[in-house]
Fold:
Amino acid sequence: MDSSQAALEALMDGRWAAIRDQARRDLPLDLFEPADDLTTDQHRHRVREHMRWLAAGGLTGLGFPKEVGGAGDVGGSIVSTEMLGYGDLSVMVKAGVQWGLFGGAVNALGTQGHHAAYLPQIISGELLGCFAMTETGHGSDVAALRTTATYDVDAAEFVIATPDDQARKDYIGGAACDARMAVVFAQLITAAGPHGVHALLVPLRDEAGNPLPGIRIEECGRKAGLNGVDNGRIWFDAVRVPREALLDRFGQVASDGSYTSSIENPSRRFFTMLGTLVRGRISVAGAVGSATQAALTLAIRYADERRQFSRPGSADEVVLLDYATHQRRLLPALATTYALHFAQEELVESLQEHAEAEELDEVAQRELETRAAGLKAIATWHATSTIQTCREACGGHGYLSSSRLPQLKSDTDVFTTFEGDNTVLLQLVAKGLLTGYRNDFGALDTLGTVRFVADQVVSSIVERTAARTLLQRIVDAAPRRAEESDLLDRGWQCAAFQDRERHIVEGLARRLRKAGKADGDAFAAFNAAQPHLLAAARAHVASELLEAFVAAIDRCADPVAAQLLGSVCDLYALSSIEADSAWFVEHGRLTAARAKAVHKAVDGLCATLRPQARQLVDGFGIPDSWLSSTLVR
Ligand SMILES: Cc1cc2nc3c(=O)[nH]c(=O)nc-3n(C[C@H](O)[C@H](O)[C@H](O)COP(=O)(O)OP(=O)(O)OC[C@H]3O[C@@H](n4cnc5c(N)ncnc54)[C@H](O)[C@@H]3O)c2cc1C
Structure:
């Protein structure tokens, strides 16, 4: 490997390179073998074996506090999950449920007693658990969950109940077979009344694996993908748990039934609680990035070998990747995948900083949560469309199970829905932008946002939104006359992204401000503005990706690698502008002639990068033995 390739790979590996290397060295190769010919039972069995292997290897403690045998390396734990994303995604999801969601909830929502009693067994895999939030009737709207946890003063116990079938827990990973305990999200009720959704630890099964009295569990059945994960439904029939089962970091019930919380406002308390669970979302964004990288590696390596049709006047057949359309289909997706990878690395760094902070900073937490929501949504949608493109780019071969692409497609599909539905998440992002992360973030269907925005000065919202220093620095240094500057000028690109974001957010803020001041139906106005909210969120995330890419190039010490990344970044920026060229032209940001020039520049960049396409997928650092596909054998 030459030094610039090594520099590229080192940059991609980032701060947690040692964890990535360890995974490359140690992960068992059968983790990468296809699973689509396995029965549900066989697949689940194989996943269980991998879970045991992971627990025995000690990596499962990475994200937990040192006091309970963990390593306090939250970023490392996310990267370690990201590495599992190159293999069987059922393992990544099942591990994510056990150590990310179940263990993560005990850690984030519980207090010292819970940590000492449960985390060591969770880390070692002796106690398998699940995360029971979603109900059949309510998925995205968590505040409306209907399972109840009612405090019985005389017995000093909570009584957990499922009022009807709409309130049964649904889709719960690990519930169908393996989980012995659940973190159950339920409406907490004391004699004084309801206190909103809280989480409690509820045992589900005995040592022999049988459901405990009052617990009914059913299989969800065969799914489109991820069939190595045992998703199930749970009903609670007046199940009693001790008072200590309440994960009580944010809300406590004393033995006399009195309720206390350090966060008085119930809505703020609820969103703060949910916000501490952000790690799951970040893991999903990272792991789906790995799956996308694997698909692109397969498709680009295949396209670099496969020939179809002769060149006129020559006996030589043309290599697929020499076709302009093939480059167009794969290389902009490759560029976006790089951008997402750098943004993910930054997000993980922020999470680590946040975890190391002495005190909980609510605004910083909401900002982190918003970034995670935006990146998760964009990364999972990008995965879905890119993996489909890769499948088509490999023709019939890509449709065979042995290519691995069908499984990547079916396994990643639901990533757009779990850990937060993407459309709902992007609304959350837009709301965070409008409110500066300050109000009771997340209550999407209330009039709160409209009222809040009505009291704000639009320019201050826009200033707050666009306060990213690196992008601003580059924009400030850019030539004044945008129409004349080179399309490959980074300053122009950054200004175009920033301008789009500002304009959309400004328009949205004005619209909601007007609605908030009028006497009309504020919900209808907010509802009508939903597409506008999504456009604002998308523009915002696109700016974040560009900024992360620029920062990564700045960090790259090798000039050859930096130049290559510069072209990849150009391709990301210009293909993003091209995809949204209708907006740029409609808003007078691009003339028709300049929009055409953008198309031409994207064509040119695809041709320029074609010879380096293989080098760029190698930059993902996926060992050949992990690709496990007939496309590259
Ligand atoms: C394989 C799998 C594993 C899962 N694992 C778990 C688990 O372990 N634990 C757990 O608790 N949950 C789990 N879930 C549940 C998952 O988190 C939910 O499915 C998800 O939150 C979406 O909820 P929902 O299915 O009720 O969809 P809904 O919320 O009903 O959404 C349906 C559609 O309506 C749209 N929509 C909803 N609200 C709005 C709105 N305000 N504005 C505009 N559009 C809207 C959404 O975009 C979506 O397209 C899992 C789900 C699956 C499929």
Observations:
- The first strand starts at residue 129 and ends at 132.
- The pocket of flavin-adenine dinucleotide is lined by residues 97, 131-134, 139-140, 171-173, 223, 226, 231, 414, 417-418, 421, 423-424, 444 (CB under 6 Å).
- The two ends are 21 Å apart (CA to CA).
